[in-house]
Design goal:
Layout: H1 38-44, E1 61-62, E2 69-71, E3 78-80, E4 89-96, H2 105-110, E5 115-123, E6 130-132, H3 136-145, E7 149-155, H4 161-175, E8 184-187, H5 207-223, E9 228-233, H6 236-239, H7 243-246, E10 252-255, E11 269-276, E12 285-292, H8 301-304, E13 310-317, E14 320-326, E15 333-339, E16 347-352, E17 359-362, E18 370-381, E19 384-387, E20 391-396, E21 402-405, E22 410-413, E23 422-426, E24 431-439, E25 445-453, E26 456-463, E27 471-475, E28 480-483, E29 492-496, E30 501-503, E31 506-510, E32 513-522, E33 525-532
Parallel strand pairs: 4-5, 5-7, 7-8, 8-9, 9-10, 10-11
Antiparallel strand pairs: 1-4, 2-3, 4-12, 5-6, 11-12, 13-14, 14-17, 15-16, 15-18, 18-19, 18-20, 21-24, 21-27, 22-23, 24-25, 25-26, 27-30, 28-29, 31-32, 32-33
Helix pairs in contact: 4-5
């Protein structure tokens, strides 16, 4: 499909686009006429939804090693299918937006259209607002009445995850009024104007941000009970978004206008032409092969996904971290990814091939450092691997149960960044629980800490400093007395409230009892002395 979103830059007037761009070149763009007025659209879509009828579909093509070359019913050209689809059926379908005009869906079905993806809407590149495709309601009612399986697609211009979620919410709101048996696709391509100039606002974001937007949209669609899908052409799957990563979690709709694609990534649908001729449609139309072992109107990718794991925990040790989790009922195994920097990229470090293995220890790690993990289940169905959602956890190889005395007033940050907002100020001399050393990609270091003030516990980060000295700490069981020396008869220095965290600076035996030498900070004053071990936990 060629890039056709040629909306005026300053107007939100309804404009249309076909689904996807196959070749990211300026030559591969065409002008598209303005959409009809809102009143005309309303008149065209005011009729009630017809009841589905039975249509005599043409049988799908069954692929064997000797039938990988087949003819499209819509272009009459021959196409070579990938050998990875041997044993699957090839279902023929189309995708449409308002520019395809009036469609006789019964004729299209009789001509061999097994399914159709209908554009539900788009985000205008000039206004940045979401708009409906003027023909959406008319098309979906007509296709449903003809017994054609229906999916949706949305042309995105999301620059942020928030905008991507907003687009997903729009699709979900529209979908709930109809029977959507196929995926809701995220159409990711750039827009060019009539002069061939790039006008997509999202063109300014990074590949990582674009990939995150794809995930945000798909995860929202999945959470609503629909199957998400990502559309992009073979080039954009490599350069604009991380197709290699995304294909692990979501079905891919590949656009590649050729008779034999060289794309080696995973995909379920191949959009092979934008020049198909289909009965009942006066314009040229986009054509797709869908490879499936199931009837196309019964395909549900969510049914193939394994159930997610639960209760992921991590326990740190000396140069090792142990992960445990609760099983996924229908998984074949689990994948574990890790990064050792706060803002780093995750890499797969372990594949567990037994669904009953629910524990793994990562050894030979660096001492005193935080590590970040995410774990997901996988399941193999019909030779293809499907994945559940990730659960994430953070753990450190730092010694547990250690704290330090704040050398001065420390600003606890919400994130390990000098530009982060402040969470709280830790007073000099206050007991600060040490959770681990956090390292960034730029090698800057922060201490991940907790600070208890009254009944409230704050967690955040402080800049690393020289002279860090970790000690054991304890918590008072009840209100205790800080004594000047290790004797019950010694002078009282101050009263320490219940559930106060205090450092253990040393231990002393006196009168058959064990005393902890400790410090206590209160109201800007700093106290040192001894408390009975029996009064702490």
């Amino acid at each position: 499909m060629k890039k056709r979103l040629l909306c005026t830059l300053l107007s939100l007037s309804l404009c249309a686009t076909s689904l996807f761009a196959a070749v990211p070149t300026k030559a591969d763009t065409t002008n598209e006429t303005p959409a009809p007025s809102a009143s005309a659209t309303a008149a065209a879509t005011a009729s009630p939804t017809p009841k589905p009828t039975t249509t005599p579909f043409k049988d799908p093509d069954a692929l064997t090693s000797s039938t990988l070359v087949g003819t499209s019913p819509f272009t009459t050209s021959k196409y070579t299918h990938s050998s990875v689809f041997i044993g699957k059926k090839v279902y023929h379908g189309i995708d449409v937006s308002y520019h395809n005009g009036t469609i006789d869906w019964a004729k299209a079905a009789a001509d061999g259209v097994h399914y159709a993806f209908i554009r539900v809407g788009y985000r205008g590149y000039g206004s940045g607002k979401i708009a409906a495709d003027p023909k959406f309601e008319t098309y979906i009612k007509g296709a449903t009445a003809a017994g054609i399986a229906v999916g949706l697609y949305f042309f995105t211009e999301a620059k942020t995850e928030t905008e991507a979620k907003e687009e997903a919410a729009y699709c979900i709101e529209q979908a709930k009024n109809y029977t959507i048996s196929l995926p809701i696709a995220f159409d990711y391509e750039y827009q060019y104007n009539a002069a061939g100039q790039l006008v997509s606002p999202k063109a300014g974001i990074s590949k990582a941000a674009a990939t995150a937007n794809c995930r945000a949209f798909c995860d929202a669609i999945s959470a609503a009970g629909y199957t998400p899908m990502i559309y992009a052409n073979s080039s954009d799957l490599k350069t604009l978004i991380d197709g290699t990563t995304l294909e692990q979690d979501y079905p891919i709709w590949l656009a590649n206008y050729t008779t034999k694609t060289k794309y080696t990534g995973k995909y379920d649908i191949w959009q092979y032409s934008s020049k198909g001729s289909v009965a009942g449609i006066s314009t040229k139309v986009d054509c797709n092969f869908w490879y499936s072992a199931s009837d196309v109107d019964k395909v549900n990718f969510e049914d193939r996904k394994p159930k997610n794991i639960t209760k992921l925990t991590a326990t740190g040790g000396t140069k090792k971290i142990t992960l445990t989790w609760k099983r996924s009922g229908n998984a074949n195994g689990y994948q574990i990814y890790r990064t050792n920097t706060y803002n780093g990229s995750y890499k797969k470090v372990k594949t567990i091939t037994s669904k009953s293995t629910l524990k793994w220890t990562n050894t030979k790690l660096s001492a005193d450092r935080e590590y970040y993990y995410k774990v997901r289940p996988y399941r193999v169905v019909d030779g293809k691997t499907y994945y559940g959602s990730y659960l994430k956890v953070t753990a450190a190889t730092s010694p547990a149960g250690k704290a330090f005395e704040a050398p001065k007033n420390l600003k606890m940050l919400k994130k390990p960044s000098a530009s982060s907002g402040k969470r709280v100020t830790i007073p000099g001399g206050a007991t600060t629980v040490y959770l681990g050393k956090t390292v960034l990609n730029n090698k800057k270091k922060f201490y991940h800490v907790q600070y208890k003030k009254g009944n409230k516990v704050y967690e955040g980060y402080v800049k690393s400093f020289k002279g860090l000295k970790l000690r054991k700490y304890c918590t008072t069981k009840a209100k205790v007395t800080l004594k000047a020396t290790a004797k019950s008869s010694a002078k009282t220095v101050v009263k320490i409230p219940k559930n106060t965290q205090i450092l253990i600076l040393g231990t002393k035996k006196s009168g058959g009892k064990t005393w902890y030498r400790t410090s206590y900070h209160k109201g800007g004053k700093y106290f040192r002395g001894y408390v009975l071990q029996s009064k702490t936990k």
